[in-house]
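Fill in residues.
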């Protein structure tokens, strides 16, 4: 460790201990050295003893800065690992910090542009419009077309802090399997690596620009979602320029009601947008917390979402999408046997899992939930209960599902806030059933043929030549196989003869030696037997070459 890393580590430890987070050290024999070490740091006392543990953890992460705030947000999505009193507090983490000097932001913008701000923008506002842990936003007007834009700028000197903190988080993650009896199942290093990738992706605003362009194209001319236009000619790794939008924050229910927004339709469209992104596009906005969602002022009776901040996106492969959709449908139908089989087929639980026991455990957890009206059942929490149950059957953490799980909880929370009677099941089930039919029915076959048609049209003129080459290759291959089979047959014959000659030679040698031992002296017959045995061995040995 460098001196700077040591100082940072000491600061982190002092913050944790000042909030009494040594309470989280597990009481196992492997953690005894940690507890003894804690007692040695007697000058770092708990200064917040009267506050609940979850609140102390949240405050400590806020004090430590962006890496730890975002890590806390990630942990808040893992309700299968943390009790509600901790998970609820972590979910309250706000990604807001004090802004840095606007003149420094201007200098950074000019460095990225390679020219003064006034050469590209008019009405540049030095005071930031908003500030977050990684970047802050300023407003301006593009000189070339008069469009109002926002300029997102990465905080200066944040990369070394993030990299230093990530090294420490990796060190802590390596200790998890040693401190917890099921630590390996949690795959802490993979979770931290996935988190680091997400964090570093957010630092590259060119990636965010590309994500926003892709999401805008996916929902072009859509009534459900609008994504602001990005101006890529002015973007760089440290700066993003995009259209400025005006909308009602999704969390401002009073303003939505005053504007006459159809809240029921708005809530249902939130669910539809999420499932469309996941299952139609395999590309979903994975940071859909209320701060990133607005509602257009236009057409309140036919409301449209506005989504910003596309720094974090997620995707699922074809197999995970199909298994997930079938899992949801099986839940809708209370087909717990199918849920258990899908978990085994997908590899989410070990292949030797007892399906009957797994099915019974899922039924035990889920049947009491389904006794409630569907409108009162939390879709996200059913998924969490499923993962909790699967945990007892050695289900490993699936990093590709972490972002999806977090986003689903966000979407459901926003939907229920807008319209408490939202029946998410009723909204989602038809969508998933139609998607499954499209994947395995006649439409899927026709779509595959349509997708492959240009390829086959290109290859069609080459088919006669390819057919001839195939026949020729087959003939050559058959000749090679016949030759190889003949060589093997000859080799087996030689080895068989060799073994026979070795056997005859051994018999002659033993016989000649036995006669000599019984009748010592010169005798021609045993000598001939011995000589014949040696000759047989020599001939047999030559045949093995």
């Amino acid at each position: 460790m460098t001196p700077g890393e040591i100082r940072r580590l000491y600061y982190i430890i002092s913050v944790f201990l000042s909030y009494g987070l040594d309470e989280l050290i597990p009481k196992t024999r492997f953690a005894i050295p940690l507890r003894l070490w804690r007692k040695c740091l007697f000058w770092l006392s708990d200064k917040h003893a009267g506050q609940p543990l979850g609140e102390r953890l949240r405050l400590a992460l806020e004090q430590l800065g962006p890496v730890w705030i975002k890590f806390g947000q990630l942990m808040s999505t893992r309700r299968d690992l943390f009790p509600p009193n901790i998970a609820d507090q972590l979910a309250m983490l706000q990604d807001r910090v004090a802004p840095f000097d606007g003149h420094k932001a201007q200098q950074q913008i000019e460095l990225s542009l390679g020219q003064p701000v006034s050469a590209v923008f008019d009405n540049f506002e030095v005071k930031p419009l908003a500030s977050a842990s990684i970047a802050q936003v300023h407003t301006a007007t593009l000189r070339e077309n008069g469009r109002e834009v926002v300029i997102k700028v990465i905080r200066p000197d944040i990369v070394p802090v993030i990299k230093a903190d990530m090294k420490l988080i990796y060190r802590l993650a390596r200790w998890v399997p040693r401190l917890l009896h099921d630590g390996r199942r949690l795959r802490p290093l993979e979770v931290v690596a996935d988190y680091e990738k997400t964090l570093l992706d957010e630092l590259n605003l060119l990636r965010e620009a590309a994500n926003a362009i892709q999401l805008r194209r996916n929902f072009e001319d859509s009534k459900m979602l609008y994504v602001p236009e990005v101006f890529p000619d002015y973007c760089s790794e440290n700066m993003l320029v995009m259209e400025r939008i005006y909308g009602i924050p999704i969390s401002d229910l009073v303003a939505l009601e005053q504007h006459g927004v159809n809240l029921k339709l708005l809530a249902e469209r939130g669910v539809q947008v999420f499932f469309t992104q996941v299952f139609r596009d395999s590309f979903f906005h994975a940071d859909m917390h209320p701060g990133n969602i607005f509602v257009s002022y236009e057409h309140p009776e036919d409301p449209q979402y506005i989504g910003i901040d596309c720094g974090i996106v997620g995707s699922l492969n074809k197999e995970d999408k199909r298994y997930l959709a079938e899992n949801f449908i099986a839940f809708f139908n209370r087909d717990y046997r199918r849920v258990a089989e899908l978990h085994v087929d997908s590899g989410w639980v070990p292949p030797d899992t007892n399906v009957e026991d797994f099915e019974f455990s899922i039924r035990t957890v889920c049947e009491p939930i389904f006794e409630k009206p569907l409108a009162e059942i939390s879709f996200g929490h059913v998924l969490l209960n499923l993962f909790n149950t699967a945990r007892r059957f050695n289900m490993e953490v699936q990093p590709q599902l972490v972002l999806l799980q977090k986003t689903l909880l966000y979407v459901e929370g926003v939907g229920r806030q807008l319209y408490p009677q939202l029946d998410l099941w009723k909204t989602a089930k038809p969508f998933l059933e139609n998607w499954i039919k499209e994947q395995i029915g006649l439409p899927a076959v026709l779509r595959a043929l349509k997708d492959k048609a240009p390829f086959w049209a290109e290859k069609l003129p080459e088919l006669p030549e390819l057919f001839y080459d195939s026949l020729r290759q087959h003939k050559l291959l058959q000749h090679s196989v016949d030759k190889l089979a003949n060589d093997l047959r000859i080799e087996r014959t030689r080895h068989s003869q060799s073994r026979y000659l070795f056997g005859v030679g051994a018999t002659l040698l033993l016989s000649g030696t036995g006669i000599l031992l019984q009748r010592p002296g010169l005798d021609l017959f045993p000598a001939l037997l011995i000589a014949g045995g040696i000759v047989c061995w020599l001939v047999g040995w030559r045949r093995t070459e």
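The CA atoms of residues 28 and 245 lie 53 Å apart.
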